[in-house]
Amino acid sequence: MARVLTEFYIASETPDGGVTLFTLTEDGALAEESKIAMPSPSWTEVIGGRICAVLRDREAGEAYAEYSIPTGRLRFGPIPTEGVSVCHFAKDGDDVYCANYTTGSVLHIRGGVPTLYRHEVPRDSTLGPDRGRQERPHCHQCLLSPDRHFVLICDLGLDTVFVYDRDMHLVSKGMVPSGHGVRHAIFSPDGRTLYALAEMGSSVTSFEWDGEAGTLAFRENLPVCPGHDGLTDAASIALSKDGRHLYASNRGTANTIAHVTTDGGLKLVSLVPSGGDHPRAIALVGGGRFLVVCNTFSDNLTLFSVGADGELMHVRDWPIPRPLCVNEI
């Protein structure tokens, strides 16, 4: 029998979906092990022996909460996020930053005390050109800098990655191409580069990150679903441990995973079918040997093995209701 390589949780956005623990063996076999109940989680992370989540609680509404992994019991919250369509959070110590997409706001929880920051349009900024989807700020991700000194906010409505200090004072900003709608970002392993994935433009923008000043300098932009005539709506981004291989998911009518190399600049190598409909989240697991794809609308996971050259090979699919997030332990 093959040895267990790793374990990971999948969050299901259904009223009783909760998070399901999977084991993955070296030969690519999956097994469901246990489940922690929580209502409609939309983003989860494993931090300090807890599952931290933004979810839709029957009484608290859209909220942030933490659950014990050993017992499955609620240990903190739920704290209402005071906004609509909470979709992401970042946590470090006593600080939690929650992104409310529809209302364009960030809830900062410090020591259990919430403070709401509305993401108003700065005087020197403008809304994106798509008045149907960029009619106001739309905060999509909160991301801590590698040294944890700064909080970065990806705003789809403003085509901008905003950089704040830990007290939510604006420090700087970096812009993706107009109308591309930045969604999620990830830092390179050496902490010197930020890769920002734009949903509407289905593109990746690389920025040089100055960790001392907290500033972003534009480098280049690369489409990750070129030539597709329909809706693509890029969603999720993952990066190999050596920083040489980047992966991005495209949804809409594309439903593909893009493989991009980063040596000497960004280069699109291949596009492979995601294995389902609406690949909302992806993650590299098992030391980067496998890529897990959450195909939300087709209610399934797809597992790919990752070759020595970074190329993806389909291994298997697994049914699970509305998978939205994957967290390796």
What is shown here, in short?
The chain is an all-beta fold and 329 residues long. 0% of the residues lie in helices and 57% in strands.
**Radius of gyration, whole Å:** 19 Å
User: Main sheet?
Assistant: 4 strands, antiparallel
Unreliable residue runs: none
Q: How many H/I helical runs?
A: 0
Query: How many runs of DSSP E, i.e. beta strands?
Result: 28
CATH architecture: 7 Propeller
Q: List the helices and strands in order.
A: EEEEEEEEEEEEEEEEEEEEEEEEEEEE
- The share of residues in helices is under 10%
> Which strand order does the major sheet show?
3-2-1-28
* CATH level-3 fold name: Methylamine Dehydrogenase, Chain H
What percent of residues are in strands? over 45%
Coarse shape: globular
Arithmetic mean pLDDT:
96
CATH class: Mainly Beta
Structural class: mainly beta
Would you kindly provide a written description of the structure presented here, covering whatever features stand out?
By secondary structure, this protein is mainly β. It has one domain (4-328): Methylamine Dehydrogenase, Chain H. The protein has no helices and 28 strands. A hairpin with a 5-residue loop joins strand 26 (300-306) and strand 27. It starts with a strand and ends with a strand. The mean pLDDT is 96.
